[in-house]
Amino acid sequence: MRFVLGILVAPLAGMLVNGLVGGRLSKKAVAGIACVAVGASFVGSLWTFLDLLRLPEEGRRLSLILYPWVLSGEVTVHVGLLVDTLSGWMALLVSGVSFLIHLYSTAYMGEDPDYSRYFTYLNFFVFSMLLLVLADNLLLLFVGWELVGLCSYLLIGFWFERPQAAMAGRKAFVVNRIGDAAFLLGIVLLLLRLGTVEIQGILHRASDAFSPGDFTATVVTLLLFTGATGKSAQLPLYLWLPDAMEGPTPVSALIHAATMVTAGVYMIARLHPLFSLAPLTMEVILAVGTLTALFAASVAITEQDLKRVLAYSTISQLGYMFMAAGVGAFAASIFHLTTHAFFKALLFLAAGAVMHAVHGETNLQRLGGLWPHLPATTFAFLVGALALAGIPPLSGYYSKDLILLHLLGQEKGAAWVLGVGTAFLTAVYIGRAATLTFFSPAPRTYDHVHEAPPLMATAMWILVGLAALGGWLGASWGGEPLLRLLAPVFMERELPHALALGFAPVLAGLAGLLLAWAVYLRGALRLANPTLSRVVSRKFYIEELYQILIVTPGRRIAQGLAEVFDPLLIDGVVNGVGVLVRAIGAGLRLFQTGYLRNYALVFLAGTLFLLGYWLFR
Questions:
Q1: Which of 26, 205, 244, 407 has the smallest C-beta neighbourhood within 10 Å, fewest atoms?
Q2: How many CA atoms lie within 13 A of 349 on its CB side?
Q3: What does the pLDDT average to over 280-290?
């Protein structure tokens, strides 16, 4: 318990030190401060989690109230932290993966002139995400939610001198504000109905205040889920995440693995009793997750940029997590969040090692033939790719299979079919990316191709181990330790086993990899459907639809207001004040003639007026 506060204080201290004096320190000192800060947070998270495990199963909850924050009538909100097995595991995951990314960044960003600014933002990002995870009330969680959005803006647009990076940062900020407005409105409605924003209070009062299917509960949860679609890049608010690739590659790994984009999944899991009282919302979550997973996997097949392939992959895998949440399989959702953190961080860091070796190139049409020059990086990428494709015995197989089994158990046959289809497409696009990057004939020659430096390689190899072996956290042969730890939080039913259909996602993954090998390496097959390829490559014209329905009308309204509202109201008020002052001045000038006799006459008139007043009152 004594280390709970240190989980937050350590990265905050690192951010303050590097932010205030980092410019006068050596790069080694800056990196050391940043890494030690996040490493200390990881140690504190680990120690706190072990403290939780020493408690009886029904009492695994630690609460720390720091000080009163809002005192208004009957509403009291404290700045406080809540650690149970869910938030404790998330803190451990966030700090652990973030530490590896910090370690990797020390070498990857070594030549960047804004080294201290980069690590300042990175520490601030980790602090913000940990605040979101550990907050004991929705108001404090929302503060972390907004700070994470701010940090994403700063990190995505880190190289702000590049127009694309600056635009991507603004896009992420604006799109997230749409979801965040709905999220905040949901918190307000929840406060008005329940009289509290404390998470434990909400969970205890929800069943008494709302009946299953209650209209207010449905509205509140739909608003909260809208916030989740923005932060976790689901349809229709996914647009910012592919453009986020303009930031440094370690930033992409941090945002996509265990931090910002998982915030929506965590929030729904955190408030699962409330969402369970809104069956319509649960159906919406399932539908949005299913469609997003399929949509993003389809688009990833046509992407020519390696990092953007991984970005759409993240959107698709987040869709799986929402599919699980939509059928009440919250533990399975968190399990997939965990394995995804391992293999997606690995894929991004391996992609960064490729970029480091070939001078920043990410176009798949210009890559190829790299495996003889980068055997270690090739192996690391393949481990992450096979885990993503759900090939046993790697981690992604266990978590993805568990989600699909839950869909069968809840008799969601259509969602299961689409989930298996998405697994097939996942294997195709990641097989294509691996083939074109490492095994296809090299279209050009690169000078000085080299493996990643030791610190970058160390972070990758740790993630290789986690991506390969992390499945035991939810595997039956390993005792399902993570699922058992989360079971008291979620109180989920036993899962029916459907072994015959359980092989379907594995077969789909193997078929997808075989198809990618046949098409993109051997050239034995051709996928020739120009119309379909054009539609998919244009992201099903969703961005064009946004342009027609939102961007263009918004610009025209803004232009109209600038042409009408500004001149008539804003400028009109200012100019009107000036006209009024001039008129008053002109009137007063009539009495300022400069002639003494006129002033004497005024004095005389005034004196006679006063005398008359006193005589006849």
A1: 26
A2: 36
A3: 97
pLDDT of residue 499: 47
Residues 477, 480, 486, CA angle at the centre, nearest 5°?
175
Closest CA to 433 of 347, 507, 509, 353: 347
Question: What is residue 68's three-state secondary structure?
Answer: strand
Question: pLDDT tens digit string along 562-611?
Answer: 777 777 777 788 888 888 888 888 887 777 777 777 778 888 888 888 88
Q: DSSP label at 75?
A: E
Please say if the pLDDT value at position 24 is more than 90.
yes
DSSP secondary structure letter of residue 2: T
CA distance 558 to 561: 5
Instruction: Write b or e for each residue in 221-253: b if 16 or more Cβ atoms lie within 10 A of its Cβ, otherwise e.
Output: bbbbbbbbbbbbbbbebbbbbbbbbbbbbbbbb
Least confident of 110-119, 331-340, 349-358, 534-543: 534-543
Q: Name the β-bridge partners of 81.
A: 64, 135
Rounded-to-integer distance, Cα 94 and Cα 42, Å: 8
Give the 3-state secondary structure of residue 384.
helix
CA–CA separation, 147 vs 169, rounded Å?
A: 14
Cis-peptide into 236, omega within 30 deg: yes
Distances (CA, A) of 603 to 589, 591, 592, 599: 17, 12, 13, 6
What is the rounded CA–CA span in Å between residue 97 and residue 42?
Answer: 9
Q: Are strands 75-84 and 61-72 parallel, antiparallel or unpaired?
A: antiparallel
Q: Rounded to an integer, what distance in angstroms lies between the CA atom of residue 171 and that of residue 244?
A: 9
Cis peptide leading into residue 392 (ω within 30°): no
Q: For residues 271 and 220, is the Cβ–Cβ distance under 8 A? A: no
Of 404, 267, 409, 390, give the one whose Cα is nearest residue 339.
390
Q: Do 166 and 160 form a contact (C-beta atoms < 8 A)?
A: yes
- The rounded percent of the chain whose pLDDT value lies above 90 is 68
What one-letter code names the amino acid at 88?
G
Specify whether the CB–CB gap between 457 and 542 falls below 8 A.
no
DSSP 3-state helix, strand, coil percentages of the chain (rounded to 5)?
75, 5, 20
Which pLDDT score, from 0 to 100, does residue 498 have?
47
The amino acid that residue 59 corresponds to is G
How many angstroms separate the CA atoms of 535 and 540, rounded?
5
The model's pLDDT over 437-479, given as tens digits with 9 standing for 90+, comes to 999 888 777 778 889 999 999 999 999 999 999 999 988 888 8
Characterise 65 by phi-psi region: left (phi > 0), alpha (psi -120 to 50), beta (else). beta
Neighbours of 283 (CB within 10 A): 13
- Please state, in angstroms and rounded to a whole number, the distance separating the CA atoms of residues 268 and 331: 11
Position of tokens 């409105």?
A: 185
Q: Within 13 Å and on the Cβ side, how many CA atoms surround 343? A: 33
Q: Are 330 and 474 in contact (CB under 8 A)?
A: no
């002639």: which residue's tokens?
Answer: 595
Tokens 């199963």: give the residue. Answer: 57
Residues pairing with 78 in the sheet: 68
Q: What is the pTM of this model?
A: 0.90
CA–CA separation, 94 and 523 (whole Å): 42
Angle between helices 215-231 and 163-194 (to 10 degrees): 160
Residue 373: other Cβ atoms inside 10 A: 17
Q: For residue range 135-190, what is the model confidence (pLDDT) as tens digits?
A: 999 999 999 999 999 999 999 999 999 999 999 999 999 999 999 999 999 999 99
